[in-house]
Amino acid sequence: MRTTMTSREFNQDTSKAKKASADGPVFITDRGRPAHVLLSIDDYNRLVGRAGRVMSLAEAVAQPGDDADFEFDPPKLQGFIKPVDFD
């Protein structure tokens, strides 16, 4: 579950944010834009792995579990590829 809080809400009720992080990441916004993410230590450890390295995209996609929530919608390249001129 994704939770979003403003910076003001976070400052006024940190314990609420910590409790919400048990269900998933808590996005903290500044002026309506995501600025920080609060994770439980278990979620953090899953991201960095046991060796302390950041998980690759392939590892993130391949994680087991029915509750995996991974969305990836790459932007379409427009005007980037030009036809080859063989003259």
Query: Whole-number average pLDDT?
Result: 80
Structural class: alpha+beta
Give the terminus-to-terminus CA distance: 57 Å
Give the CATH topology of the domain at 3-61: YefM-like fold
CATH class term of the domain at 3-61: Alpha Beta
Number of strands: 3
Family: Belongs to the phD/YefM antitoxin family.
Function: Antitoxin component of a type II toxin-antitoxin (TA) system.
Protein name: Antitoxin
Organism: Rhodoplanes azumiensis
Characterise the protein shown here.
The chain has 87 residues and is α+β, with helices and mostly antiparallel strands. It has a domain at 3-61: YefM-like domain (YefM-like fold, 3-Layer(aba) Sandwich), CATH 3.40.1620.10. Helix content is 30%, strand content 17%. It contains four helices and three strands, in the order βααββαα. It has helices at 7-12, 14-20, 41-48, 57-61, and strands at residues 3-6, 26-30, 33-38. Strands 1-2-3 form a three-stranded mixed β-sheet. The N and C termini lie far apart (57 Å). The relative contact order is 0.11. The mean pLDDT is 80. Antitoxin component of a type II toxin-antitoxin (TA) system. InterPro entries: Antitoxin_Phd/YefM, YefM-like_sf. Residues 1-22 are annotated as: Disordered.
Key attributes of the depicted protein:
single chain; alpha+beta; YefM-like fold; three-stranded mixed sheet; Antitoxin; Antitoxin_Phd/YefM
Give a short synopsis of this structure:
The chain is flat, with a radius of gyration of 19 Å. β2 (26-30) and β3 (33-38) form a beta hairpin. The chain has four helices and three strands.
